[in-house]
Amino acid sequence: MAIHTVGIDIAKTVFHLVALDEKGAVLTKKKFSRSQLLVYTANLKADVIGMEACSGAHFLARALVEQGHDVRMMPAEYVRPYVKSNKNDFIDAEAIAEAVLRPTMRFVPVKTDEQLDLQALHRVRERWIQRRVALVNQIRGFLLERGIPIRVGAEHLRNTLPAVLENAENGLSGRARTILCALREEWVELDTKIGTMTEEIGRISRSNEGCKRLMGVPGIGPIISTALVAAVGNATAFRKGRHLAAWLGLVPRQHSSGGKPKLLGISKRGNQYLRKLLVEGARAAFARLNRSQHSFGPWMDQLGDKKHSNVAVVALANKMARIAWAVLTTGQQYRAVM
Predict the structure, then answer these.
(1) What whole-number distance in Å separates Cα of residue 301 and Cα of residue 178?
(2) The domain made up of 5-99 is a member of CATH 3.30.70.360
(3) Residue 332, SS3?
(4) Of 82, 209, 291, 336, whose Cβ has the fewest other Cβ atoms within 10 Å?
(5) To which H or E segment does residue 224 belong?
(6) 3-state secondary structure of 158
(7) DSSP 148
(8) Using CB atoms within 10 A of its CB, is residue 49 exposed (0-12), middle (13-18) or buried (19+)?
(9) Residue 111 has what DSSP assignment?
């Protein structure tokens, strides 16, 4: 019988493939290396190939698309309900093949090389920032152990540390001074790397049309715009702005039963890094936006009077996400309507 759907369970070097017919019966189960898989699929005739969206999936999906296949990637959590009995690689591949043709299934667009490069820039920059935060806390901890408390704040420590190291009467040993000097040099190196990466992201945001349109939205700058483009591209995978906001975890979590709706705090699902950036951008806009000259003004004033500031900031982040969806999908500039 003809192969209808194929599910591929992806690993680092080993790939498990299960092919189903139109009735869902298993026709083929095979195990391949990476090179063997692409040789096999080059001559494979199937209506749809399904995979989970995971590390390496975008590369494999592009290779299969170049071979002429219809490739669909799904979030792993949406495939899990189709796994039968105990878990193994072939059962996972069969579950993927079954899930890929569900009419309500949601799919992940295949990322381009440009999107993956931009995503890598953000991930490296974020890792360096986290490393810098840990480094600053370690320096403050070492000084506190020697009876030298430093006020919280990286900038205050940056300004205070040279004087602490030069003070010969503060009780620091020679070895401790050597360690602190090495940590300060590492701090300077991290600042340089982060600054270089931030400048590169800024250059990309000024050359990318989608990023330039997004930066017209209040609270969205080069970092958020490039992160959005890297994550969702033109955002056409979402049918409406609310779906993008829900994917980012910026909508209430629902726990309703018996016809009684019950809304809780935000779901915090999806892209944690992007959600954090949007909330930070919304917090800056909420505090600094000239409300008398902007369409958001009356809405923000009304929301701020009724809700806690954190709730208002998240609501603004939700609105920013919806506007970003409209800007990306329509290709039009943001226009504030008074």
Answers:
(1) 53
(2) no
(3) coil
(4) 209
(5) helix 222-232
(6) helix
(7) -
(8) buried
(9) P
Which residue, chain included where needed, has tokens 């190196």?
189
Closest CA to 211 of 87, 72, 114, 309: 114
Average pLDDT, the chain: 90
Beta strand segments in the chain, E: 5-9, 14-20, 26-33, 48-52, 71-74, 252-254, 263-266
- Mean pLDDT on 163-167: 91
Size of the chain in residues: 338
d(CA 244, CA 229): 13
Model pLDDT, residue 321:
94
Strands 71-74 and 48-52: parallel
Under the banding of pLDDT at 50, 70 and 90, the label for residue 50 is very high
Amino acid, res. 25: A
Helix intervals (H) in 272-308: 272-288, 296-306
Torsion of CA 88, 91, 96, 102, to 10 degrees: -140
Query: At 184, which amino acid appears?
Result: R
Give the other-Cβ count within 10 Å of 1's Cβ.
10
What distance in Å separates the CA atoms of residue 194 and residue 207, rounded to the nearest whole number? Answer: 20
The ranges assigned to domains in the chain are 5-99, 113-207, 209-330
AA letter at 72? R
Q: Sheet containing 26-33: give its strands across.
A: 26-33, 14-20, 5-9, 48-52, 71-74
For residue 47, what are the contacts with CB-CB under 8 A and spacing of at least 6? 3, 4, 5, 70
Are the C-beta atoms of 324 and 220 separated by less than 8 Å? yes
Residue 47 is encoded by which pair of tokens?
């209506």
Q: Are 316 and 286 in contact (CB under 8 A)?
A: yes
pLDDT per position as a tens digit, 183-230: 999 999 999 999 999 999 999 999 999 999 999 998 999 999 999 999
